[in-house]
Amino acid sequence: MTAKLTTVRSGALTTVQDAGRPGHAHLGVPRSGALDAPAMRLANRLLGNDPGAAVLETTLTGCALRPDRDVTVVVGGAPCPVTVDAGPVAWGAPVRVPAGSVLDVGAVTAGVRSYVAVAGGVAVEPVLGSRSTDLLSGLGPDPLRDGDVVAVGAPPRPVPPPVAAPWPGPPAELVLPVRPGPRADWFSPAALRTLTSAAYRVSPHSNRIGLRTEGPPLERASTGELPSEGMVLGAVQVPPDGRPVIFLHDHPTTGGYPVIAVVPEPALAAAAQAAAGTPLRFTLA
Fold this sequence. Notes:
Elements: E1 4-9, E2 15-17, H1 37-47, E3 55-59, E4 63-67, E5 71-77, E6 82-84, E7 87-88, E8 95-97, E9 103-105, E10 113-118, E11 149-151, E12 174-180, H2 189-195, E13 200-202, E14 210-214, E15 229-230, E16 235-237, E17 245-247, E18 254-255, E19 259-262, H3 268-272, E20 279-284
């Protein structure tokens, strides 16, 4: 039999995430998946899991779990204190958690999202080929609540961990490269200059759907309205208040506000770890 994890403390927002469910935008289904995909893959690699095996993504305040059998876990992503039965254990490296003990993933000391990987992966029922929670469409398992139980898959054969795992630190300043978007011509030349020269900050209203910004509004050259059109991961959409929003993994598949630019996907992992108030600059890719 494989292990089960009981949620002792669910934290601010803890969801199941994997590599997501790309390829279903034509059905109105977002991609979803771990916002900091490199952190998810590294945590899984340290355990010998498939790189896209499902993990738990925590937000700011962590979570606490009790396994009913011995399990091996890695907590990575945003740095945080990690304890087993109140005793400190390693962050960013494999840790054995005995049956009945409490693994506590504490509040982040920097960044936003920590990842709890367990040998064998989180084994909730997949939907459209993915175990990810999608906050926009409601697909996948609900965010964890206190008392919830999640199953664990069969653990892989142990693998020797790397000598030093290369965990990147959360950004002190978020620098996002952008390419011109499909509706860049809906904005004035001054707006395009503002986007790539002004100082912005990450808004506390950001979430898995989009990273909202605080800073100077972007002036539109066209005052018309767009019919809804397809949206992609990393699209920089500009709502009526003029402040750019970067679409993240749970973004809607269509939208009616103009997209001035697009952030390439590899740059979005840093955005996932940019806390509210982090300075933000856009640069031309």
